[in-house]
Amino acid sequence: FDEAWYPGDAMDTQTFVEKGGKTTVTTAVLYASKEARDGVLKSPMASGVEESYQALDALLASAPAKVGK
């Protein structure tokens, strides 16, 4: 989304760690307030994020593998 629907700002941090040919993505979100965080947790946002990661997984699985840099 482009515009936040919750009060205040949020900072997302994504970490990508490759181990044994698999990459794990960890996302952390720091909200401006507990109220903003709680509002997001009560929304269906988690299922939307899960769908996005599943689509990314399918896209990456269909891409040709690259060896080396």
Instruction: Return the string of H and E elements.
Output: EEHH
Strands side by side in the biggest sheet: 1-2
Question: What is the alpha-carbon Rg in Å?
Answer: 16 Å
Please give the number of β-strands.
2
Average predicted confidence as pLDDT: 87
Task: Describe the structure in your own words.
The chain has 69 residues and is an alpha+beta fold. The protein has helices spanning 34-42, 45-62; strands spanning 10-19, 22-31. A two-stranded antiparallel ribbon has the order 1-2. A hairpin with a 2-residue loop joins strand 1 and strand 2 (22-31). The longest helix has 18 residues, at 45-62. The radius of gyration is 16 Å and the shape is elongated. The N and C termini lie far apart (32 Å). The relative contact order is 0.14. The mean pLDDT is 87.
Secondary structure elements and pairings:
Layout: E1 10-19, E2 22-31, H1 34-42, H2 45-62
Antiparallel strand pairs: 1-2
Question: What are the salient characteristics of this protein?
Answer:
single chain, 69 residues, alpha+beta, 39% helix, 29% strand
Short description:
With 69 residues, the chain is α+β, with helices and mostly antiparallel strands. It has helices spanning 34-42, 45-62, and strands at residues 10-19, 22-31.
